[in-house]
Description:
This protein has helices spanning 2-40, 55-120, 128-154, 166-183, 202-218, 252-255, 273-283, and strands spanning 162-164, 186-191, 198-200, 224-233, 238-245, 287-292, 298-305. It has two domains: 2-77, no CATH class; 162-305, Histidine kinase-like ATPase, C-terminal domain (Heat Shock Protein 90), CATH 3.30.565. The mean pLDDT is 79. The strands form two sheets. A five-stranded mixed beta sheet has the order 2-4-5-7-6, with helices on one face. 20% of the residues are buried. It is of the alpha+beta class. It is built from seven helices and seven strands; from the N terminus they run αααβαββαββααββ. Helix content is 59%, strand content 14%.
Amino acid sequence: MTGFYFILAVLIIILCISLLKTYSYKKTLADITASIKKAEGNKFKTRVLGSKSDETGILISNINSLLSELEKAQESIDTYRTDTNRYVEKMASIGEVAATIAHEIKNPLAGISGALQVLAEDFPNDSPRREIANDILTEIERLDMAVKDLIFYAKPPDPVLTLTDVSVLLHSIRDSVRNRAQEQSVTISLKSDNIPKIMADPFQLEKALSHVVFHSLHEMEGGGELTIIADNRYEDNTVEIRCDDTGAGMQKEFLSDVFKPRFSTRYAGSGLGLAISRNIIESHKGRIEIESALGSGTTFRITLPVEG
Length: 308
């Protein structure tokens, strides 16, 4: 009989231990679940309590390590967001100031240009003064274009989307640069057949494409060939415009800076042209890419959605 009670006592003890372990595991799993729920709400400072040396303790340690890494990552993200917001606010302020200054410069320029044109009328055609006046007027015009680019870049207007014929825009750009291309001995080939109309701001899009074409012409001051091809990409319902020039090309390390303000190799404009082009293309939900290598010319690829 004593043996029976001993065995019964052992069974009861084993049952109690089993129940305690079950309760402990359930509590641990509950703590882990609660911590994961908190982590889902970006509360990575939470930790699972426990200091066991068994598999459960290893699991708790691994989860706490993961939460610690997530906490560090979240702090880095928060710091980055704060710095980015400050930078965006700073650039917005600079843009406001730049636009204001550009407007203040633009108005006197128009007055100076008009007054100089009146004065130049009194100079004989063969007078050196007339030639000097014309040179000044040319520089004023170039400065006025740079100021307009600065205003556009600092405070770009929202695009006004209408049904736009890309082929018409490309032909217009080709005609506008024809004389300049001939002076530089540059041949322009254009192919834009069967291109669907797209939803775009024709004024802004023509400005963006013009800056790309002007950049290509500047890369071929000693002559060359500019090929412009527009294709309809049925697979993703977009139009791709490709501009290939036979200029000197660019080193690979410069390619990442091409669309940044003030980038220039031999560009005689404001240095904002390609930056403006990228902003306009992206505001139309498109993208612009560049491929280039020294001695191999440069290719610009512009992709635009058919529907805005």
